[in-house]
Design goal:
The complex is a heterodimer of chains A (about 725) and B (about 110). With about 725 residues, chain A is an alpha/beta fold. Chain A has 31 helices and 20 strands. In chain A, the strands form 5 sheets. A 5-stranded parallel sheet of chain A has the order 2-3-4-1-5, with helices on both faces. Chain A has a 5-stranded mixed sheet with strand order 11-12-13-14-15. In chain A, a hairpin with a 2-residue loop joins strand 7 and strand 8. Chain A starts with 19 loop residues before the first helix and ends in a 9-residue tail after the last strand. The longest helix of chain B is centred in the N-terminal third of the chain and has 16 residues. Chain B contains 3 helices and 8 strands. In chain B, the strands form 2 sheets. In chain B, strands 1-2-3-5-7-8 form a 6-stranded mixed sheet. Chain B has a two-stranded parallel sheet with strand order 4-6. Classes of the chains: A alpha/beta (about 725), B alpha/beta (about 110). The interface between A and B is medium-sized, with 20 and 18 residues.
């Protein structure tokens, strides 16, 4: 069982995918390892903050006995401050008693607090009785502030009785909706900031915490990364028995934009319909259903309904959002929104703030614009606008929407693949810090003349000895070019162009200031003169429009630049580099950690049919792979032999229904890992007589694998076997020159 | 050199040399075994299995070779594995073949 697969009490997810770092941060905070007692969790909407916090609660509940965990979430249905404080107190009593009695079932009881108090452990009796008194006297307490303070201070009574408490308060943005004389949030702050308790306040990141942030540790919860969203999709596919493949997994991850809730909605829907998500058509069909009256549609319906209960107001807001999404001028003055919303001033500003907190719109200096980058929101608004504002035919709207989603799907995926293959220019520039590097790492013509074609191992050594060096500037700020000049997005993906501000000599003068404008351009062969001029022009427009005075253009083309293109670069005092030079530059600057390992693609997969001698195809493949990665001939032969034995093992013993052997070869810095999987009988499914070697002469395959490889692991899957074998790279045999 | 059932063989008096191919698996192993038995039945007293062309032997191939060794022993014939490369020798050692048969390494590699 992994660390994250523990007993579930409040949480619902079996595996918390992609949140290990955040969960560890919460656990460290619970142990008092941070310098400030308060931690603020600022999360994007639907990023899974509640599941994360509940998982932290479950771990604390199950795995230790010293600190009582307390989880409380404000609800949409909380109406008044007093009511919320009362619920806070009741929850605290219930969870404390459940923890002390080590009985999670108490959390499900719906009895009166005095009944709960009867089952409290005797040692807590005094302060629990006092809290019960406060709870029961609530209706007699006219002073709301006093009652709220008493209720929120409940955990402090436990602390005073020498009991450790870890308080988690979730969904604080719902405090906006509470009515009453008391400011719930302010009181909460006041009570806990001076309490000495470790506590967590969690809510939507745009909720106004600015005034409070300085006093807290900050933990941000973003939508899942592309790879984690893919892992979540695989996890849910297993859980709901929905078939996906690599392409559909990536499309789900990309289209849902890392929203774990929406990814789950897709699998719930597929499971209910007994359908798979194994092609784009299926995904978009389910997505369309989910948007038009399914869970995704209802999610946004609820958000809008909470912000504006009146249907006509919702229509007005939908119209405003649609215009913001579709017309050229995205930012509209707030006053224009107010006129069209049809709300009184107070209600309007409350609604606009909630739209902002829910990240339906973005507010900036008295303007508002819809969050165009949110695909599902844009789709929802377009659908709702057509149906409710324009009154269009539903079947037509659904059909046209589905069609447009299908047409969009391949472009969505292509964008992701292009983004993921980007070098990471912004990150690379950010590590420029006046290092001295060989000029040949930036100047393609020099690199081509003196180093192109040289073996990798020798390149870095030889470059290091190159006398002609250049000193990089000290970069103080870097960002995607789009952030400075949005129209550049029409020409290039965000991740493939960056601007960096710096100083050449760290003198911090106007003369010393330098701005690098970079772009990764596409060209199958060496980039030609026209292409180079085109891009130099584009980037010079950026410099002109942003008023950059002292700038340097740097173009990167996969195969470098033609001689004519080099001349263009020279005339414009620009740098031009190939992808190879960038790889070497990243190694020279030790920047793999910031740019990521995007440039390597050392994973190979093949599927071979079971049959006579087909294992030789796999053996020849692994031989070629191992040779490329400088494994010694002896090791290569050992790997081949072990792989052949694994293939024979699968062929002879599995009774595989599809007669296929699935193989993956992953080369890392110092090892090769071979995974062989097949469907069919597992070792535990075989009868005893089938596993006894015949006179000791058969069944040698396993012995050979274990002897020839450094590590061998056998795993039974739901429907077959997986063998992982690892061989470590040792001394490379090299022929003397 | 004769080639019967795709297995090259060379005979010289009471000595027969059977040539294994590049990949000794079940199929090629059985062919070699058949040819070796045929030679033993024909009165061969010195049986050589030549591995000069053999790059890879799998465990099934090894088990079949054990059968050949047994057959030679039962026929009262000597058996030698010749021109065996280092990797194959390592394999034979792992599986205990070297206890039952004389192995002449491939000195040319």
């Amino acid at each position: 069982m992994s660390d994250l697969q523990r007993k579930r009490i409040l949480s619902t997810a079996e595996n918390l995918v992609g949140r290990t770092r955040e969960l560890d941060a919460l656990m460290r905070h619970a142990k008092g390892e941070n310098s400030k007692p308060g931690l603020m969790l600022l999360s994007a909407p639907s990023a899974g903050a509640t599941e994360l916090l509940k998982t932290a609660f479950d771990r604390l509940f199950c795995e230790q006995k010293n600190t009582i965990p307390f989880y409380f979430a404000l609800k949409k249905t909380d109406e008044t401050v007093r009511q919320t404080a009362l619920r806070f107190l009741q929850n605290f009593l219930q969870q404390t008693i459940a923890f002390r009695r080590r009985d999670a079932k108490i959390l499900n009881l719906s009895g009166d607090v005095s009944e709960l108090a009867r089952i409290a452990v005797p040692g807590d009796g005094y302060w629990i009785d006092r809290l019960v008194e406060i709870y029961q006297n609530e209706s007699e307490t006219n002073n709301e502030l006093a009652f709220v303070r008493q209720a929120l201070s409940a955990p402090l009574r436990a602390v005073a009785a020498d009991t450790k408490i870890f308080v988690i308060i979730d969904d604080l943005h719902e405090a906006e909706n509470l009515t009453g004389e008391t400011d719930f949030l302010a009181e909460l702050q006041d009570v806990f900031s001076n309490s000495g308790l470790e506590f967590v306040l969690a809510g939507r990141r745009r909720f106004l915490f600015d005034a409070m942030r300085a006093h807290y540790e900050i933990l941000r919860l973003e939508p899942l990364s592309f790879s984690d969203a893919g892992l979540l999709a695989e996890d849910l596919a297993d859980k709901f028995s929905v078939v996906i493949n690599g392409q559909t997994r990536d499309l789900l991850a990309a289209q849902m934009q890392g929203n774990p809730q929406f990814i789950k909605f897709m699998f719930l829907a597929a499971s209910e319909r007994r359908q798979n998500l194994d092609c784009f058509r299926q995904i978009e069909k389910i997505y369309t259903d989910e948007l038009f009256g399914g869970r995704i549609g209802r999610f946004y319906d609820d958000v809008l309904a909470q912000i504006a209960p009146n249907i006509e107001t919702q229509k007005n807001i939908t119209g405003l959002l649609f215009d913001s999404l579709t017309i050229e001028k995205e930012q509209t003055p707030i006053e224009a929104w107010r006129k069209r919303a049809g709300l009184g001033e107070k209600d309007f500003y409350a609604a606009i703030n909630r739209l902002n907190t829910s990240e339906i719109i973005r507010l900036s200096s008295n303007h508002a614009e819809a969050m165009k980058e949110n695909t599902s929101l844009s789709d929802y608004i377009a659908a709702r606008f057509r149906l409710e504002v324009m009154g269009e035919n539903r079947a037509l709207t659904v059909a046209e929407s589905l069609s447009s989603y299908l047409k969009r799907a391949p472009k969505t995926i292509a964008r992701v693949y292009r983004r993921n293959s980007a070098i990471g220019l912004r990150e690379l520039l950010s590590v420029f810090d006046r290092q001295e590097i060989p000029l040949a790492l930036l100047d393609y013509s020099r690199f081509r003349d003196e180093y192109k074609g040289a073996p990798n191992e020798e390149l870095l050594k030889t470059l290091a000895k190159d006398a002609e060096k250049i000193r990089l500037p000290q970069i103080v700020y870097s960002a995607h070019t789009m952030a400075f000049y949005p129209p550049i997005e029409q020409s290039i993906e965000k991740e493939r162009s960056a601007v960096a501000f710096g100083f050449q000599e760290s003198k911090y003068t106007d003369e010393d200031e330098t701005i690098w404008i970079t772009a990764e351009i596409d060209s199958k062969l060496e980039a030609a003169k026209d292409l180079t001029e085109f891009w130099c022009d584009r980037l010079e427009v950026v410099a002109l429009m942003c008023n950059f005075l002292n700038y340097k253009i740097w173009l990167i083309a996969p195969e470098g630049f033609s001689p004519e293109a080099v001349e263009v670069l020279r005339r414009r005092n620009a740098f031009g580099s190939s992808r190879k030079q960038i790889e070497l530059l990243i190694k020279t600057l030790d920047a793999e950690a910031v740019t990521g390992e995007k440039l390597k693609a050392n994973e190979y997969e093949i599927v071979i049919p079971m049959g006579e001698d087909t294992e030789m195809i796999a053996a020849q493949t692994i031989e070629e792979i191992a040779r490329r990665h400088h494994f010694a001939p002896k090791a290569i032969n050992q790997i081949k032999t072990a792989l052949i034995e694994a293939c024979i093992n699968a062929t002879e013993h599995s009774l595989s229904p599809d007669r296929k052997i699935y193989q993956k070869f992953a080369v890392e810095n110092d090892k090769i890992v071979i995974t062989i999987a097949n469907r069919g009988l597992r070792l535990s499914d075989k009868k005893a007589s089938e596993t006894t070697p015949d006179e000791g002469r058969r069944g040698w395959g396993l012995k050979l694998m274990k002897t020839l490889m450094d590590e061998v692991k056998f795993e039974e899957t739901d429907d077959g076997t997986r063998i992982s074998m690892t061989k470590y790279l040792k001394t490379v045999d090299k022929q003397p020159v | 050199m004769q080639t019967t059932f795709d297995v090259p063989v060379q005979t010289n008096g009471e000595t027969a040399t059977v040539f294994a191919n590049d990949y000794l698996n079940k199929l090629s192993g059985e062919k070699i075994e058949r040819e070796c038995r045929r030679q033993l039945d024909a009165g061969c007293k010195n049986l050589v299995v030549n591995f000069a062309e053999t790059e890879i032997v799998n465990s099934i191939g090894v088990s079949i070779l054990l059968g050949v060794i047994d057959a030679a022993s039962n026929a009262g014939a000597k058996i030698v594995f010749s021109d065996v490369n280092d990797d194959t020798i390592e394999l034979f050692e792992m599986l205990g073949l070297t206890n039952h048969v004389k192995i002449v390494p491939d000195s040319c590699r």
